[in-house]
Amino acid sequence: MTELDSQNSVSPAESAVDEGLSPRAAAEAKKAAAAKAAAAAFIQSAEDEYGTVEAAQPRDVKKGHRAAIIIGLVICVLVAAAGLAYLFTSGFFNDEPVAEETQRVPLSDARVLAAFDEVTMDAPDITQYAYVSQDALIGPKFSDIVLNEPTNLGAPGNQIVTCEATATATFKNKGIEINVPVTLPFEYSDAGETWVPGELTRGEATATPLASANASDILANLNDILAANDPTYGEAMADASIVKTTSDLTIDGGPITAALSKTVESEADGVTTSELRTSTVTLNVAWSNTEGWIVSVADAGQIEEQTNQIPAAGSSSDTPASVDPANADPENLGTVKYGDTVTLAGTLQAVEGAADLSAGNNYTNNGATENANGSVQLVLKLNRPVDMSLNGTQYRLTTIAVATSGLDDNGKSLIGRKADVKGPLEESFATSWSPAGIKALEIHVE
Fold first, then answer.
1. What is the pLDDT of residues 324-334, one digit of tens each?
2. How confident is the model at residue 103 (pLDDT cuts 50, 70, 90)?
3. Helix 23-50, helix 61-89: angle, nearest 10
4. CATH number of the domain where residue 375 is located
5. What is the pTM of this model?
6. Parent domain of 41
7. Which of 49, 169, 202, 281 is the most exposed place for a label (fewest CB within 10 A)?
8. Cα–Cα distances in Å, from 59 out to 14, 66, 71?
């Protein structure tokens, strides 16, 4: 090709444009033309250096033949080199198109912290945690923030660069702390050359107590707790009075012990039967990560029953056989409690015949002995029946136990004497026939 022809000829790239090829196809055509031009230049240079191969002369055939072979090999090498150069420049050996490099802005710690400061996160539902403070939770407070490595997705040249940050969101009030693991995704924006935070996702919450459970709140639900443990027991002691409570609760839980008392009355054939039920229940309180304080019954003590029969007004049984008919009008002490001091008049007797004493009082307690394990020395046979309400139960007594102390003969010298006995009512002196005993501080005999 002459220089003129070269100047006037149409290049492959131009021809590609004229033929309506895409710019990328035109660029490939241009590279191919350049490779062919380079090959042609190598061949031309070889001809200039070695000259035109002429026909071999008869007198030195071998020498001319050898020179022709060498020249042919050189030309082949040059052509092959030009072909390889064309293949490499055309992208023949590339599996994928070469991506254009994009300068990306790194995701900084300051950007992550600022994103967490802008996060809006609802507090967990605290009502699912039993027996903890229901005051509003404070939070979230983010801690343990960790930025993970970016992830490239998609094909080169059209990549989406993402990154995730993890943290712990903490909510608390005076009774509970709730920690929630969270993840905040970020996506790189080529347009703005910045990182854009996505939607926060939550993990499973973990709750820990900051204060012990409230024993009063637990005992307020005692009926439900007992019924869930044993329906029969729960019904028998439903709405029982809590006489005494002992608790040892910490943020690790602990026991609660409650002494219960309940009186059940029924009436039949002109006689009112009053049944006193007592028991001691021990509850166990333990923490649950998902439910708060869990209360279970560790020990439901046996229900003790004490029965007292009170004759109805106008009944012939108002006058026990052991009481003088002239003094049959009862003395009413009203409502008393253990520890109250009373003064009662009657005749002192020895402790014997517990069955007869029980019949006179219409009271039986099989859980006690007839002399309170030796603490009661005398029986005061009352001049008049005594009505009183003790510990929620109504009693009518014709005899009452008397405990003496400081007497050399344990009061034997007083047997058969009429006396006024003064002292506090003591539960520890209750016998199988008397619901309480008088701790005799003063005894005045006739």
1. 444 567 888 88
2. very low
3. 160
4. 2.40.50
5. 0.48
6. 11-89
7. 49
8. 53, 14, 21
